[in-house]
Structure formats: C-alpha cells, structure tokens
C-alpha cells in the first residue's frame, strides 16, 4: 500500500481570508506523483459569522492542467470534484477555533478517455492563535485508496463586515495548485 501526502501550494482568497498552504511533513523523501490546478466554489449554510455555530458545507471544483508523473497508463489529465460536510466555527479570530468533516469525490479524466474516481475523507481543524487550518485525511475509495492527505493553511484576517451580519459569509471561491506526493 502506497502512502501519499497531498500538499497545496498557493495564495488563495477564501472567506475573505488570505491562505498560504504548505506541505505536511513526512518521514521519508516524498516523490511528486501529480500536479493539478484546482478552481472552485464552496457554500456555507448557514453562513459563518462572528458567533460559533454549526453549518453545512458544499462545493465543487474543476481540476485542470494535471501533470501525472506516476507513469501509470492511462494517466490523469484533469477532473472535477464535489465536496460536502458539516462544521462548527466562527470567523477568525473571533473564536478559539473550529472544525469540519468533509467528503471529497473526485472524478478523474484519464488519457485514454475513460474516467476513474477517488473519495477522500478530510478533517479540517482551525485555530485562531496562531491563525492556522490543518487538513488531514485519507483516500477511502478507488484510485489512490489508502493514501493519506495532509496540509497546513496559515489563515489571515476574515472580512469582519461580512462576519458581523446574521447571514455571515455564505460562499467563497479560489484557485490552488495541488501536488500529490507518494512516500516510498
């Protein structure tokens, strides 16, 4: 079974928050398997505001410009993803943290015109001091099953004007570069 660390390297505006994402640490030298651009939208219901509360999160994204270095035939070209989950949080830094559990379903377009899928179970944990979001997960089904995913996001200040309304922040969008590493 191959272990994988997913790293997202980009600056993204998300919930009015500037995010810088860095790789998780691993015990062996990672090998780059896949690089893709991921661009999408997420929605929060109810919106995230200054008061901690439970919310549902849904979203979708387009996965493009993939470079698959696994030498697999057929290899990954692009794809789409959907996500859904629940969380409990408030706009940072108005809370000591928050969390969400999200399931991500990815449909990969392969070089022979066929498709393959991956399902990833993610747990997202946020802290206000320091403003950090840690994402940990595992690929639970299909392509890359059993692999692990890790990312740390350093979050900036949310738009407090949106956070101060009862409706709160209800949607966000952004683009990131996703890198998939295997650990030999």
Index terms:
184 residues, mainly beta, 11-stranded antiparallel beta sheet, 1 helix
Describe the overall structure.
By secondary structure, the protein is an all-beta fold. 2% of the residues lie in helices and 68% in strands. It contains 1 helix and 11 strands. It has one helix spanning 160-163, and strands at 3-8, 11-14, 17-23, 31-48, 53-68, 76-89, 97-110, 115-127, 132-142, 148-155, 169-183. It has an 11-stranded antiparallel beta sheet, with no helix packed on it. A hairpin with a 2-residue loop joins strand 2 and strand 3 (17-23). The radius of gyration is 17 Å and the shape is elongated. The chain starts with a strand and ends with a strand. Residues 1-26 have low confidence and may be disordered.
Query: How helical, in percent, are the residues?
Result: under 10%
> What distance lies between the first and last C-alpha atoms, to the nearest angstrom?
10 Å
Secondary-structure class: mainly beta
Q: Radius of gyration, Cα only, in angstroms?
A: 17 Å
What is the H/E order?
EEEEEEEEEEHE
C-alpha geometry = elongated
Output the number of helix runs: 1
Contiguous uncertain segments of 5+ residues: 1-26
Number of strands: 11
Quick one: biggest sheet?
11 strands, antiparallel
Average predicted confidence as pLDDT: 75
Widest sheet, order of strands: 1-11-4-5-6-7-8-9-10-3-2
């Amino acid at each position: 079974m191959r272990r994988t660390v997913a790293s997202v390297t980009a600056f993204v505006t998300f919930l009015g928050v500037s995010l810088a994402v860095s790789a998780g640490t691993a015990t062996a030298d990672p090998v780059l398997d896949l690089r893709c651009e991921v661009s999408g939208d997420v929605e929060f219901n109810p919106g995230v505001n200054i008061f901690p509360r439970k919310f549902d999160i849904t979203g979708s994204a387009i996965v493009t410009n993939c470079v698959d270095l696994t030498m697999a035939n057929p290899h990954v070209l692009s794809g789409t993803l959907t996500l859904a989950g629940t969380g409990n949080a408030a706009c940072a830094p108005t809370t000591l943290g928050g969390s969400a559990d999200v399931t991500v379903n990815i449909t990969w377009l392969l070089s022979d015109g066929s498709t393959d899928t991956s399902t990833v179970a993610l747990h997202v944990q946020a802290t206000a001091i320091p403003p950090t979001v840690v994402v940990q997960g595992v690929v639970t089904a299909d392509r890359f099953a059993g692999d692990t995913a890790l990312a740390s996001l350093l979050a900036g200040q949310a738009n407090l004007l949106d956070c101060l309304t009862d409706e709160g922040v209800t949607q966000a969008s952004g683009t990131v570069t996703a890198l998939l590493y295997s650990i030999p």
